[in-house]
Design goal:
Layout (H helix, E strand, L loop, with lengths): L1 H15 L1 H6 L6 H7 L3 E2 H10 L2 H4 L3 H11 L5 H8 L2 H8 L22 E2 L1 H16 L1
Antiparallel strand pairs: 1-2
Length: 136
Amino acid sequence: MLQIFLEPLKKLFVDFVHQNLNTGKRSVGWKDVEEKNIVMIARSFLKLCRYYYLIPHLLNIEQLQEFMEQTLPPVTNGEMEFYSKNTLIKAFDEDKNYQTTRVDPMKDRSGEECEPGLHFNEFMFILGIIAHHCVH
């Protein structure tokens, strides 16, 4: 049964990784995701939620940030700062043209990525959390 949904979810994931969002075409495929361990950064997932009207129809941005933090607890100082400064909420408020703006991974002064990123299994997990939230 899950196999019916797996391929469309893989396609959705690949479509919304920042490398593909930024170019407007598929420059990264599923094989790349698997081999290079490519993640979907938090703001790319936010764009997906906006494109498909999960926000504001099923949940609000504060709930999304909460679900993101539950799924991807902060590991680095940069990720702790990402959540403590409500960066996802600010991105939502400031990105008025979310259909066309670019998203590149946020980096701290040392060049380390500080934005949480969803692996495919975490992507499916957070979609499950959102679905569960909507049912209850």
